[in-house]
Specification:
The protein is an all-beta fold. The protein has no helices and nine strands.
């Protein structure tokens, strides 16, 4: 997410919290060290989008919307409510793990539209 606190400068980003999910910047191309510059994709197809799904054996079809997740560097499938902005969508179907001990996270094909 773009920083929205006292140090806001339009460039600086940080891991999101529940209060600033609307400031989604995009998908980082690779790990970015603290206080370093890095590439973030804000729009277009991406072969690897890190998704966090809830371990409940649900299936999400291609075209399902993705929203940012607070306190995790990932997106998650979500239902589209009236007036919601979807920051990305899946380009392939995925199925949640049935392992209820933790959420399932992996890379999937997606389309980013953070602009």
């Amino acid at each position: 997410m773009f920083d929205v606190g006292a140090s806001v400068n339009g460039v600086r980003v940080t891991q999101g919290s529940a209060a600033d999910l609307g400031a989604y910047a995009g998908v980082a191309d690779a790990d970015i060290a603290n206080d370093a510059y890095g590439l973030v994709q804000a729009y277009g197809y991406r072969a690897t989008v890190y998704c966090k799904t809830v371990a409940n054996s649900s299936t999400y079809s291609a075209g399902s919307g993705l929203d940012p997740v607070a306190d995790v560097w990932s997106l998650t499938p979500s239902a589209v409510a009236a007036g919601d902005k979807q920051f990305a969508f899946l380009c392939e179907a995925i199925t949640d793990s049935s392992d209820t001990s933790s959420a399932y996270s992996a890379n999937f094909k997606g389309f980013i539209r953070a602009l």
